[in-house]
Amino acid sequence: MKKYITLSLCFILLTLTSALAQKEPIKLGVVGLTHGHVGWILSREAKHDVIMVGIVETDRNLAKRLSEKHGFPMEMVFNTIEEMITAVKPEAVAGFGNIYDHLAIVETCAPKGIHVMVEKPLAVSLEHAKKMEALAKKHNIHLLTNYETSWYPTNVKAFELLHKGTIGALRKVIVRDGHKGPKKIGVSDEFLNFLTDPKLNGGGAIMDFGCYGANLMTWIQQGKKPNSVTAVTQQLQPENNPKVDDDATIILTYDTAMAILEPSWNWPIGRKDMEIYGERGAIYADNKHDLRLRISEGYSGYDEEIFKLGERDAPFDEPFALLASVIRGETILERYDPYSLENNMISMEILDAAVKSSKTGRTIKIKD
């Protein structure tokens, strides 16, 4: 009898030890401090899911400024990814530098089995994205792309209403994203420098905000690629954005629907909103929390229901909790989830075609 009790106690202890080990914080390295979104991790309250163990940044003045603002020690800052990996052995890395460097991050981390999350978009070009995808698959790492709109409960509600058939078959989607422009809203000099560099950012507003619509449409259409992509760009603030576009319109055609993406650095008021039109009604995701559902009545009448939504449930309420949950195997992303690699490869194909269309004045056909 004692033997069985001893075995049972050992089993319980092993189970508890395993459970506790699984809950150890994910050791996260941060590569780059020039992206304005880096404040999300630097100012994040200490939690059990993720712990920042190292930072890579060659601009010591920038690192010192952010160190004083957010309280991390300069001893955490390294000059190269290799130095950081050797010193602190991160399990995952978050990229917060320019978009061009996303490929180099994956090239360094993937062979070492280190998972990667980058800020949107996935890459500066489809060519870079394909290399990143190949490395992620070869070395079996998670490669996520963080979009702020992935956290929006209104987008999730709109998706659910559409796919339940509430407004009938999909006919048109309009996605509008942007603000007054990087310089006008006062981003840091370091952030401005790469946002307005066609090599480091892949383009201007067409990439910076066009990626949101491409990502959402790929999710809404569950991986179905558009038949064609047509894009027009303008430069309405040459004094602020001399090397890149700052206004774009992208038209995507599908067999029975159309999408119009309107990324811009010329909106007088910052926005991230979406309108979805079906045969019987429309859904307006006005912002993160406010959604309107209208069902058609007669010619121009409608019955309206208004939703005021709270935050999404964890871990889908912010990117680092989700990254940790995915790495631990607690969360398996649904197919074509906005964070997923399969979604973002199609999103990059759309963006690549949009840039080509804007430069050539031609509609670009997409092969499914």
How would you describe what is shown here?
The chain is 36% helix and 24% strand. The chain is of the alpha/beta class and 368 residues long. It has two domains: 2-148, Rossmann fold; 149-312 and 335-365, Dihydrodipicolinate Reductase, domain 2 (2-Layer Sandwich). The strands form two sheets. A nine-stranded mixed sheet has the order 14-13-12-11-7-10-9-8-15. Strands 3-2-1-4-5-6 form a six-stranded parallel sheet. The chain is globular and about 65 Å long. The model is unreliable at 1-21 (pLDDT under 50). Pfam families: GFO_IDH_MocA, GFO_IDH_MocA_C3.
Please outline what is shown here:
The chain has 368 residues and is α/β, with parallel strands linked by helices. It has helices at residues 2-22, 39-42, 60-70, 81-88, 102-109, 126-138, 153-163, 189-195, 198-201, 205-208, 210-220, 319-328, 341-360; strands at residues 26-31, 50-56, 77-78, 92-95, 115-119, 143-146, 170-178, 228-234, 247-253, 258-264, 271-278, 281-285, 290-297, 301-308, 364-365.
